[in-house]
Hints:
Layout: E1 4-7, E2 13-17, H1 19-25, E3 29-37, E4 43-48, E5 59-60, E6 63-66, H2 73-85, E7 92-104, E8 107-119, E9 131-137, H3 139-148, H4 155-168
Parallel strand pairs: 3-8
Antiparallel strand pairs: 1-2, 3-4, 3-6, 4-5, 4-9, 7-8
Amino acid sequence: MPKAVFVDEGDNVIGAGTPREAREKGIRHRIVRIFLLNAKGELLIQKRSEKVVSNPNKWDHSAAGHVDEGEDYSTAAYRELKEELGVSGVSLREVARYYMEETDEKESKKRFNALYVGTYNDEIVLDKKEVSEVRWIKIDELLAWIKRQPEDFTQGFIYGLKEFLKFQK
């Protein structure tokens, strides 16, 4: 199993280990988050599988995941798209980098995030171990849903969406 990149407070690589180790020991690590938009301007969101360790059955970015040892952010973004959604050949733009700390399921997550955006209108093939379903949704409908039921979404998704909306302006 690939190891996640561990970093210091300046996002400099200091080692690698499992994502669980990072959460249990409060070690900073890198993650990528990807938003795909279609020709109608709708955003693709995914519902995390009930089988995943972190945030099962919650809605999240189109794809996301840890940066593995030996990867940079961009390489990890393309890998995650392929692994989770079967998507390749899309051009991604990095639109934000940010650091956030969150606690959910009683674990600490200290992560440097790189947010990417791309346009995609073709077939999606889900990795059912990680993703139970996907949905294309208009941004205004998504914001209304989050306002009504924020518990349906991961904390990281809500924060990432705010970063994405800054980019859209």
